[in-house]
Amino acid sequence: MGRNGTIARDSEINCDRIAKVYDGDKAALSDINFTIPAHGIFSLIGRNGAGKTTLARILSTLLEPSSGRATIDGLDVMADANKLRERMAVVPQEGRTVAWMTPVQAVSAYLLWRGLSYSESKRKAIEAIAQVGMEKQADRLNRTLSGGMKRKVLVAMVLASDAEFVFLDEPSTGLDPISRQDLWKLLIELGKERFVFLTTHYLEEAESVADRIGILDDGKLLTLGNMDELRGHLKHQYSVKVPKGVDLPPVQGEIITLNNGLVQVLTTKDEALEISHHLIERKAQFSVNPVTLDDIFTYMVGAMDPELRESKEVEEE
Amino acid sequence: MSRLSSQFLASILVNAIYEMKNYPAVLVITVLSPLSFLTLIFFISDGALLEVGIVGGLIMTMFTAGTSLQADLSHLKNDFKLQDMVVASPTSAPVYVGGMALSELIYASPALIILAILFSIHVDIEPVKVLGIVIVMLLMFLMSISLGFALATFSTDIVQSFAFTRLLSLLFTTLAPVYYPLEYIPLPWRYLAYLSPTTYAAQIGHYLIGFVEVSRNLLIVNWAVLIAVTIFFLWIGLKKARWREK
User: Fold this and answer.
1) What pLDDT is recorded for position B169?
2) For a tag on chain B, would you pick the N or C end, based on fewer CB atoms within 10 A?
3) Distance from B156 to chain A by nearest Cα, in Å?
């Protein structure tokens, strides 16, 4: 790895049996094991309280694990924290820009804390604010900015830094769809040069920007991989969704009743076509797609109606 | 510009310069607080306690500057999550806190300057005694920033933090005999005043300006208590404060 801002291609993030227990008995993470390349964008998804923030905070040297060991590019997050802090930057969950400062002042102050000179930090801050498209707001007080702009200022802080490892904890929470897409563009650019650890509960965000995705639930890592690898967890690669009560033909695929009033059939491409023809003939509403991260997440986490799942199992019998 | 001076400058800019520039009302309150007590004491005592009040104002300003650190650190940590960004950066805890402490001094500087001018006009003492008062003020500051940092790291709620800062200020600078001599408190209530470290600081200050007579032994006790309490709070600040959460 280099202090010139580029990460060696063989650099890795490693978690070895990481666990975190709060207040003696509240397990937030249990036995987290993975190794991923320390470049590109890694997104950790999961429901609220799944442990995403806890893992992000442990890896970004903000929180001590209860047990286990984590390394970034061979440096231990506990023993080598000071060395790592030279090379990382964090935007914490619910991070906010300081109200009485302007975007340029906020970015510039952050760079001063990172050790840059006043003139250098000012120059880089102006560049970063321009990079996030906020030249016109550069000298306005942060408290007068919209929520989306405030988040952009935080991203500009890490953008302006020379940090190789960037941790962003739910950076798009509360943003409108346009602002969120603007943020995704920034993240994709950031991920070309650095390692980005992104936690989110927006599945389409993870699917759009991440090179690798981990699914965390109840403190356990259920799976991790790129989208193709994650799709491999499902027997079927296509999803047909119809409202409950719509007459379906006999199918080989798996029928899942979702919480949102829809019935999902996970199936093969050929059978998805057959079902589509059947539904078109009956003028029924439906959608057919290759399986998305949403489908994989629902399948892995099992966030479906348990009662109806039982009835589906009875039908199969 | 060295890395260390950049890091100190960041804290000063964030916690003092930009805030004073953009929210001048806060600055006015900081100046008025010690001066309002001084005015009150001046009128009530018909001018007799002016020198005592000036020394009290200096002690109060230094102590309050330190305890304000608690509220400010807590505000930046809990409301803006800025401390997380700093923890995961090359800035160390002592440099961050040192910078923040300096920022509190800069924040308090208008009040300190006014009080220093009043001191130079109304208090006529030898330079060595002025040095003694400066040392007392620095000990007060060191003690209160250590306490402030330790408390801030455990704080999770800004409302509680601000309330606690006001409570500390009330107990240690308003009720305690800082603006007035200890002897004005009737016995046995006077013993309660000895629970406050500012009492010892103020008694040394009042002695140095020649307002009260203090025996050599009592003076040694006052200095010893003041230094011991400062070391204790420094130890608490260094040992108990959390940079990385557990």
Assistant:
1) 84
2) C
3) 14
SS3 string of B73-118?
Answer: HHHHHHHCCHHHHHHCCCCCHHHHHHHHHHHHHHHHHHHHHHHHHH
Task: State pLDDT tens for residues A125-134.
Answer: 999 999 988 9
Does any CB of chain B come closer than 8 Å to the CB of residue A133? no
Residues A90, B79: C-beta atoms closer than 8 Å: no
Mean pLDDT rounded to a whole number for chain A: 88
Eight-class DSSP state of A63: B
Return the CA Rg of chain A: 22
**Does the beta-carbon distance from A98 to B82 stay under 8 Å?**
yes
- Please give the interface size between A and B, counted as residue pairs whose CB atoms are below 8 Å apart: 103
- State residue A9's pLDDT score: 66
d(CA B14, CA B83): 12
Q: How far apart are CA B241 and CA B159, in angstroms?
A: 20
Facing B88 at nearest CB: one of A85, A94, A117: A85
Residue B69 lies in a domain: yes
Is beta strand A88-91 parallel, antiparallel or unpaired with respect to A165-169?
parallel
Is A2's pLDDT higher than 50? no
Q: Which domains does chain A have, with CATH numbers?
A: 12-225 (3.40.50.300), 238-316 (no CATH)
pTM value? 0.85
pLDDT digits (tens, 9 = 90+) for A108-158: 999 999 999 999 999 999 999 999 889 999 999 999 998 888 989 999 999
Closest CA to B243 of B105, B73, B75: B73
- Report how many domains make up chain B: 1
| DSSP summary character for residue B241 | -
Domain range for residue B47? 3-240
